[in-house]
Amino acid sequence: MGPGAQTISQYIDILAAMILVTAFLIVSSRSLTFYVRLFSLQSFFLAAVALLVAIGYGEMHILTAAILTIVVKVVAIPIVLNKITDAIKVRKEIDFTINVTVSLLICGGLVIVADSVAQPILSAQTGDTLGVSRVLPASIAMIMIGLFIMVARKKAVTQLIGLMTMENGLFLSGLAITYGMPMIVEVGIFFDILMATLILGVFMFRINRTFESISMDTLRSLRH
Amino acid sequence: MIDIAADIAGVLVQAVLALGFAPLVTGIIRKTKARLQNRQGPPILQPYLDLQKLFRKGVIIPSTASWIFRATPYILFASTLVIVLLVPTLFTPVPLHWAGDIITVVYLFALGRFFLALAGLDTGTSFGGLGSSREMSIAAIIEPAMMLAIFTVSVTAGSTNLSTIVASLSTTPASAVNPSHILAFAGLFIVTLAETGRIPVDNPATHLELTMIHEAMVLEYSGRYLALIEWASQMKLLIFLALLSNMFFPLGMATTLSPAALLVALIAIAGKTIVLAIVVAVIESTNAKLRLFRVPEFLMVAFILSLLALILYFIVGV
After folding, report:
1. Enclosing H/E stretch for A164
2. How far is A17 from A15, CA to CA, in rounded Å?
3. Which of A11, A13, A26, A142 is most worth mutating to test chain B (most B CB atoms within 10 A of its CB)?
4. What's the number of domains chain A is made of?
């Protein structure tokens, strides 16, 4: 491992830690605008990881993915989400299914679980000169934290943020194991995510207009 | 003989520097806050004048108070002064490095806090008891967070002794830049805000009954007792800023006792402390104090950051 590769792998470690911290901050906060800002920051760090992998391995298609991440996840989706929160005038996540303190502890536990899940995969990994695969535990933890946000929070916007966090985790694990997915798959996923945000946004706006709430509990009572 | 003389000189230098500069740090924070709020603010040397005034004033002791009330200021001041001698500020190893490690430091803080909480209860006023109960419930969360943050640095250095930690980090500065250290730094920074009663947790400038924590405990103190308590808490702030700067960025630390190295170390620690003090002042000016029931959530973030730091150390294995 040359000195250049070592520096790159050190930066990737730091960025992976930062990505994990943004996920924890999302769990710890209540303000919807803060969620959106954190998601944007998280995607920015993710794009930086992709950029470093692209430089380190000289793979052009990862570079495209990094640029797409910046355009779609750092800029476009946060703008759409901010428009939604402005339109439906919901600022705060108020009553939680699981309170913040317990949520944080559970997410800490999830990181440990993610690590023990990732270790067998990592020991089979060879020929990885950049140490990108070391971020695999962090990426699995992100997927689980995203899922946890979707389960434990009630507002539709927050659940959407949980979905996006999961998607970021998947992208990171894709980078970690196979240094990114094939180009066409990558583009497809980004398009999917953008469309999903737009459709869900319009959907939430309609739900709010009809029921004056985007709380999932209220929707559930429709069944009766 | 020369060794012992040098050790005594080292101890004296550390004690005098900490005693002398602690009010200055508080003064800098107050001045920065005032400037950020478009006020002129008191002069930077105002804390010295306050201490001088308090030392000259008489002491009023409540009729219900016991010996604990009278002993607490001295215990608090002495325990803080001992911590000053254990934390490397200018040079490493400190002369008293054999006397205690980081765990001693944490529990000397706990000793001072314990007696302060007792003194708050001792006077029998409702505010004192309120302050004590709040202080102890907050301490229950920040103590583990602080320990975890410090353990993260300890496992990297392979020792819990502060002098060894600082020495091993200053010989290999690159090892200080890794994810677990960054997280531990963030965790310890939140702990610092909570321990020294800064704004998101406590407001050092108010006597508004519903919000105060530290001020509620020392409400009954006056004269030289109050001066000792104030001076001890100013030293506590200085110690935390020195811990943050020296455990994570031990740049410019003197490893030999030559005058040139000591001068560099003095400038380095002064610069780092002033930068951290200004950061604290900016945080205090841009944030509102949290509601008391939200404080545990905020401190839990510090705990989780420190825990993550330790987990990441083993995951990434730097």
Report:
1. helix A156-178
2. 5
3. A13
4. 1
Integer CA distances (angstroms), A6 to A9, A21, A56, A128, B251, in order: 5, 23, 10, 12, 22
Please judge whether B300 and A28 are an interchain contact, meaning their C-beta atoms are less than 8 angstroms apart.
Answer: yes
Put simply, the answer to whether B301 touches A21 (Cβ < 8 Å) is: no
CB within 8 Å: B315 and A107: no
Beta bridge partners of B254: B91
Contact by Cβ (8 Å): A179, A139: no
Lowest-confidence pick of A40-49, A143-152, B40-49, B171-180: B171-180
User: What ipTM describes this predicted complex?
Assistant: 0.72
Separation between Cα atoms, residue A102 and residue A104, nearest integer Å = 5
Query: Cα–Cα distances in Å, from A165 out to B77, B80, B104?
Result: 49, 45, 41
pLDDT at B318: 46
- Cα angle A205, A161, A215 (rounded to 5 degrees) comes to 45
Which range of residues forms the domain containing residue A185?
Answer: 3-223
B-chain residues near A112 (CB < 8 A): 311
State the nearest Cα–Cα gap between A153 and chain B, in angstroms: 16
* Mean pLDDT of the region B289-297: 84
Contact residues, chain A, for B180 at CB < 8 Å: 17
* Calpha distance B190→B215 (Å, rounded): 20
pLDDT of amino acid A90: 73
Q: Which phi-psi region, left, alpha or beta, contains residue B59 (left: φ > 0; alpha: ψ -120 to 50)?
A: beta
pLDDT tens per residue across span A200-224: 877 777 777 777 676 777 666 666 5
Please report residues of B whose CB lies closer than 8 A to that of A105: 300, 304
Other Cβ atoms closer than 10 A to B278: 16
Separation of alpha carbons A62 and A50, rounded Å: 6
CB of B316 within 8 Å of a chain A CB? The answer is yes
Quickly list DSSP for B282-306. Answer: HHHHHSPPPPGGGHHHHHHHHHHHH
